[in-house]
Amino acid sequence: MNRPAPDTRKGLVLALLEQREWVTAADINTAAVGGSSGDRRLRELRADGWPIERETVPGSSMHRYRLVPELGQLELFTTGGG
């Protein structure tokens, strides 16, 4: 996986995914992040190999997305270790 430049729309979408557990399309499509093509940047990140999970928001037809932590990162999240 190649990390996109941080000052690109794709880089901003990735940064948002790294900062928050779940993000919605509305979060991604803001002018400050991905703009009107934020969802396209999300698909590009997936095509580049970034493990991005999608699920339906409970009680809604909207979807939310998250960057799936790698095994080592997951262990830190669940154990609080370092």
Strand content: 5-15%
Proportion in helices: 40-55%
**Spatial strand sequence of the major β-sheet:** 1-3-2
Question: What would the principal axes of the Cα set say about the shape?
Answer: globular
Structural features, described:
The protein is α+β, with helices and mostly antiparallel strands. It has a single domain, classed as Winged helix-like DNA-binding domain superfamily/Winged helix DNA-binding domain (Arc Repressor Mutant, subunit A, Orthogonal Bundle), CATH 1.10.10. The protein is built from four helices and three strands, in the order H-E-H-H-E-E-H. It has helices at 9-19, 25-28, 38-47, 71-79; strands at 23-24, 52-56, 63-67. The protein has a three-stranded antiparallel β-sheet with strand order 1-3-2. The radius of gyration is 13 Å and the shape is globular. The two termini are 24 Å apart. Residues 72-79 have low confidence and may be disordered.
Characteristics:
single chain, alpha+beta, Arc Repressor Mutant, subunit A, three-stranded antiparallel β-sheet, 4 helices
Per-chain topology:
Elements: H1 9-19, E1 23-24, H2 25-28, H3 38-47, E2 52-56, E3 63-67, H4 71-79
Helix pairs in contact: 1-3
